[in-house]
Input
Amino acid sequence: MVQVSVSINGRAYRMACEDGQEEHLQALARRFDGMIAQLKENFGEIGDQRLTVMAGIMAMDLLAEADGRVKHLNEEISALRDARSAVLEKSEGDQEVLARRIDKAAEELERLSKVLLES
Output
């Protein structure tokens, strides 16, 4: 584990993270700090604890929105896969019908060929 120092609302916090995740953790901290700064700008100094709770709720709202988008996209992907499968099945069915018609035409040509050869 690696120790990283992040700044939230003007205070430094030491955090542990997996090796190689330092930049990601710092980026998350900057984003969270930005939420707090936005809240301070909108509501003024309303207390650190309240700001932190409000920023946490904002983050959860963003997460819920992203989860909803992911769910919707997964449903669209599933619908597209189902549509693709239906098209492929229809195509395979059409190919089978075509193959049977070709077989019948070939049989008819053979029959006609025999009739012509016998004449």
Notes: The chain has two helices and two strands. The beta strands are 2-8, 11-17. The first strand starts at residue 2 and ends at 8.
